[in-house]
Amino acid sequence: MSVTWSGVFPALMTEFNKDGSLDLDGTQRHIKSCMDAGIEGLVMLGTLGENASLRAEEKETVLKAAVEATEGKIPVLSGVAEYTTELGLEHAARAKRAGCEGLMVLPSMVYQQDQREGQAHFNAIANGANLPVMIYNNPVSYKLDMTPESFVEMSVNNNIVAVKESSNDSRRMTDMINACGDRYVMFCGVDDLVLENLMFGATGWVSGLVNSFPREAVALYAYAKAGNMEEAVALYRWFMPLLHLDVDVKLVQYIKLANQMTSEGSEWVRRPRMELIGDERKKVEAIVQKALDTRPNI
Q1: Contact present, 253 and 47 (Cβ < 8 Å)
Q2: Domain segments of the chain: what residues?
Q3: How far is CA 256 from CA 23, 61, 149, 173, 265, in A?
Q4: Can you give the pTM of this predicted structure?
Q5: Does the pLDDT value for residue 1 go beyond 60?
Q6: Taking CA atoms, which of 186, 192, 272, 295 is between 20 and 30 Å from 203?
Q7: What's the pLDDT tens digit per position in 65-98?
């Protein structure tokens, strides 16, 4: 299956049992729930998929389970978030072996690259993997901001086809399109900027809160792309307190707790992450419960 680069792609959670072991059945159930809601693609092993918490063989196992669950109906992408370019290439090979149709590539972890090093990293993985690549530009979390000028230079690499833009600046979408034209398919990567990004040129949305509220996320995207702005704005305002959970340092724990409250998954994470307690837990529970109490009829 070739990747259709549009629509809502969950950055899917990796489900664990309470003892930290993989819950593949839970992951597959969650995938099918999101598919029933109308998602158009799937990103496994991103930040929300707790990529760095899994061993190499576990990552391949999760990817195989995802490919199996989708039954060829939607494309599966794998996050590539490794310490070095060489390790990234090794994971890309595992992802291809598992049946993934594309990759979402992050900068190499830990070492803070500059523009030249970032370009070399992304180009090497795109060339070596021989799969279509979405570059994940998230300077807030990963301390490398790939500028529009860098994307102009990388445009000669035909394997790089899309950008998940997460610079937390809605102006960047316009800057990218002004610099690169339609060379790249642009995805919003910041949940609480999605309506703005869709208005200014994003074709897709790699979303965190679609995990917990898949029907609402798909509906918001559909309203925006159809130009039904009254409906889109109303739904966005209901959604916004939830969407803010996606940009906190504890987004994994926050959204996993939301998943548990909406029966989409469980809150179990791997150390060093820990389940929420005390006032922090109450805060997230209150946000999710209010959303459930006022949930629109979609």
Answers
A1: no
A2: 7-293
A3: 14, 21, 36, 29, 7
A4: 0.95
A5: no
A6: 295
A7: 999 999 999 999 999 999 999 999 999 999 999 9
